[in-house]
Amino acid sequence: MSDQTRATDGVTGSRSRILADLHQVWRMRVFEEKVRDLRLAGDAVGSIHLGIGQEAVAVGTAELIGPDDALFATYRGHSWALACGVPPAALFAEVLGRATGTNGGRGGSAHLSAPAHRFFGENSIVGAGAPIAVGAALAGRFDGSGRVAITVFGDGAMNQGAVHEAMNFAAAMNLPVVFVCENNTWSELTPIDEMVRDPHLHRRAAAYGIPGERIDGNDPAIVRDRLGAAVRRAREGGGPTLVEAMTARLVGHYIGDAEQYRRPGELDEARRLEPTVRLAAQLRAAGAPDAEIERAEHDARAETEQAAAEALAAPLADPATAKDHLYV
Fold first, then answer.
1. Where are the beta strands (DSSP E) in the chain?
2. Where is the Dehydrogenase E1 component domain (predicted)?
């Protein structure tokens, strides 16, 4: 863990801030647990990828996204949509193909977006959000918005040509883009350290002449601090930054993944360091009673169940509207 925290030792938060972070992590965690249950029950269909265990990166980034900024996620984007303020009921409705979904039930789990909430969507093409984010940042130069674009992708996407091109273009044009690599060490089903010679992916930033650092992505306070510096740098004209946030995916790459590729002891270690455990330990150290800590999970579960019920009660998307928005 020393490599992950070298530049962020001593970053702490108040008890109220830690409690708020824990609540947000639980909101994301139980939302995805409910999505998994709905998929297994047949209420949701199609390909669904969960980011259970990776929530702290989104929680730490949430308040850094300004009103004119734009965020682009991967197909593992439920937590990022929630971080941008998308209402859980509308998010559930989209996953369930309901007319009240963020995209009228057209996008589903892997292609949803909510531009009104600064969430410009997911993308099932690995790494494809990076060049789109660069385009949004370039547009901000001409429309006077002062927009910062944040693009999130996994460790495997670092080997995609589009990501290299996006970083090079952003560096050459000095664009306000923050490249966030959620490194859960698994490029789908293959360990990243067997795919590259140097698994410290942030070091690639030097080739583009931009800052790059590796951080502990399981603590929202650390993410908020280091990504905050990158966002400020971009907003002040300092150009792009690459942040490699180390985290762990506690579930399979997809629902139904047998996870036979896991290394011995890997999940036990990941569960020891995951965000809910980390934040609960910080709260206990700050003197918070167990009842207060447990309430964060309880409240998140109650909110999630209510939102899921509302979405399930909504009408399915009407097939007759399938061609809406396709033609002028």
1. 70-72, 149-154, 177-183, 186-187, 190-191, 212-216, 241-246
2. 31-318
151-208 pLDDT, tens digit per residue, is 999 999 999 999 999 999 999 999 999 999 999 999 999 999 999 999 999 999 999 9
Starting at the edge strand that comes first in sequence, how are the strands of the sheet with 149-154 ordered?
70-72, 149-154, 177-183, 241-246, 212-216
Mean pLDDT of the chain: 95
Q: In b/e form, how buried is each residue of 128-142, taking b as 16+ CB within 10 angstroms? A: bbbbbbbbbbbebee
Q: What is the Rg, in whole angstroms, of the alpha carbon atoms belonging to the chain?
A: 19
Cα distance between residue 205 and residue 212, in whole Å? 5
Determine the pLDDT at residue 11: 67
- Tally the C-alpha atoms within 13 A of residue 220's C-alpha that lie toward its C-beta: 29
Q: What are phi and psi of 40, to 5 degrees?
A: -65, -30
Listed in sequence order, the residues at least 6 apart from 162 whose beta carbon sits closer than 8 Å to its beta carbon are 127, 128, 130, 131
Nearest 10 degrees: Cα torsion 224, 227, 231, 236: 100
Q: Could you tell me the pTM of the whole model? A: 0.94
3-state secondary structure of 322: coil
Q: Which of 171, 172, 185, 183 is nearest to 241 (CA)?
A: 171
Query: What is the C-alpha to C-alpha distance for residues 122 and 109, in angstroms, rounded to an integer?
Result: 9
Taking CA atoms, 63 is separated from 102, 118, 236, 325, in Å, by 21, 12, 18, 32
89/261 Cα distance (integer angstroms): 35
Output helix, strand, coil percentages for the chain, rounded to the nearest 5: 50, 10, 40
Q: Which token pair is 319?
A: 């097939």
**Position 35: which residue type?**
V
